[in-house]
């Protein structure tokens, strides 16, 4: 037992030394957990932001001016007046997302309750901006109409009063969610790539023959690769969560850091084991990249990190609930945003650990077959 531990530690030292000498991989790790996380936090949002608006004002009334003045930053850029003949070319060139057309005598017809229509043309290729922006514009214009009729306090006359309470993310900051989910995706990427690259590097550099003549077992070699690369990923993950996400970007961590550490390590163990298994199937690093790329994309897109699992079809929900990435996303969300305890995440954590053990056993079996080919 003591010799096994010493062998694993020695092999871990070899793996860490090899990783630290790989400058491109180190650069990728730093960029993924710093620049990429900050960029996604600031740029990838689900709110309407800086939406472009054009206007055709055939009425030139105070009401139409008030409605346009209410389209303010940061949701909308200042509306630009265009000619009717310029509308379709401008939409074709994606110069504007929204085009508002106020008909002639709009305010007069409103005063007479003649039910005039405002035309709103929307470039729906900007899907998020178009959907939410249309609702924003309708709400803003409705508020201006209520003010025009001195009914802006209409809610106080209703027999009921709406009292909305938002938990866990009071300001609806989508950057909180997208930033954390980017870190989760980074864990998936590095867990697969680092161990896979370590295995394939042994084959390409010819150092795998050195391992065969050493008094070490397949178990010791495989576990050392997972531990060494897993420790690097875990440390960078926790540093990114605390220093980048929490301190720099202001994302609160409501749950236990220790529990978060356990969940991350369990998932890293599962994905590094999967990465080692895939590496035994791929003869070269480019082919390994072709295999893991769709795995990374599909696991992320169906995990609930890109869109809610509840929004998917029932059949897809059944399938993705067997994915360790989905359970990891559940755990991350519960701990960081909801402050969940062990009782809330125990099942998902157990699923991840079971997958980790299964992947590890299969990876060792394949790794042993791969080594036998070099004998």
Question: Would you mind describing this structure in some detail?
Answer:
The protein is mainly alpha-helical and 375 residues long. It folds into two domains: 2-44 and 172-372, no CATH class; 53-157, abc type-2 transporter like domain (abc type-2 transporter like fold), CATH 3.40.1710. Helices cover 65% and strands 4% of the residues. The protein is built from 15 helices and four strands. Strands 2-1-3-4 form a four-stranded mixed β-sheet, with helices on one face. The radius of gyration is 28 Å and the shape is elongated. The protein starts with a helix and ends with a helix.
Describe the structure concisely:
The protein is mainly α.
**DSSP strand tally:** 4
Largest sheet: 4 strands, mixed
User: Helicity, in percent?
Assistant: 55-70%
Inertia-based shape: elongated
Q: How many DSSP H or I helices?
A: 15
Please mark out the parts with pLDDT under 50 across 5 or more consecutive residues, or reply none: none
């Amino acid at each position: 037992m003591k010799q096994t531990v010493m062998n694993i530690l020695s092999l871990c030292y070899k793996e860490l030394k090899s990783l630290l000498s790989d400058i491109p991989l180190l650069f990728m790790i730093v960029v993924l957990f710093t620049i990429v996380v900050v960029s996604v936090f600031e740029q990838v949002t689900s709110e309407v932001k800086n939406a472009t608006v054009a206007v055709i004002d055939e009425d030139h009334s105070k009401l139409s001016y008030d409605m346009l003045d209410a389209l303010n930053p940061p949701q909308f850029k200042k509306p630009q007046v265009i000619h009717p003949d310029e509308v379709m070319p401008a939409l074709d060139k994606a110069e504007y997302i929204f085009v508002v057309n106020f008909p002639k005598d709009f305010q007069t017809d409103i005063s007479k309750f003649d039910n005039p229509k405002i035309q709103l043309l929307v470039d729906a290729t900007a899907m998020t901006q178009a959907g939410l922006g249309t609702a924003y514009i309708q709400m803003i214009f409705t508020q201006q109409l209520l003010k025009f009729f001195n009914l802006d306090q209409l809610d106080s006359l209703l027999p009921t009063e709406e009292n909305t309470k938002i938990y866990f993310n009071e300001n609806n900051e989508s950057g909180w969610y997208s930033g954390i989910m980017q870190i989760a995706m980074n864990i998936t990427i590095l867990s697969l790539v680092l161990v896979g690259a370590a295995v394939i590097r042994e084959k390409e550099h010819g150092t795998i023959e050195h391992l065969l003549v050493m008094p070490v077992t397949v178990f010791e070699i495989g576990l050392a690769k997972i531990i060494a690369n897993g420790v690097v990923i875990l440390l960078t993950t926790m540093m990114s969560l605390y220093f980048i996400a929490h301190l720099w970007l202001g994302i609160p961590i409501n749950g236990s850091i220790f529990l978060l550490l356990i969940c991350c390590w369990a998932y890293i163990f599962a994905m590094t084991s999967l990465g080692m298994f895939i590496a035994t199937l791929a003869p070269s690093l480019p082919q390994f990249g072709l295999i893991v790329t769709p795995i990374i994309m599909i696991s992320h897109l169906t995990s609930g990190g890109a869109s809610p699992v509840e929004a998917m079809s029932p059949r897809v929900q059944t399938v993705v609930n067997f994915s360790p990435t989905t359970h990891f996303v559940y755990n991350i969300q519960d701990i960081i945003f909801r402050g969940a305890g062990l009782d809330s995440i125990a099942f998902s954590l157990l699923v991840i650990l079971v997958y980790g053990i299964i992947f590890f056993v299969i990876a060792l079996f394949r790794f042993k077959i791969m080594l036998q080919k070099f004998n």
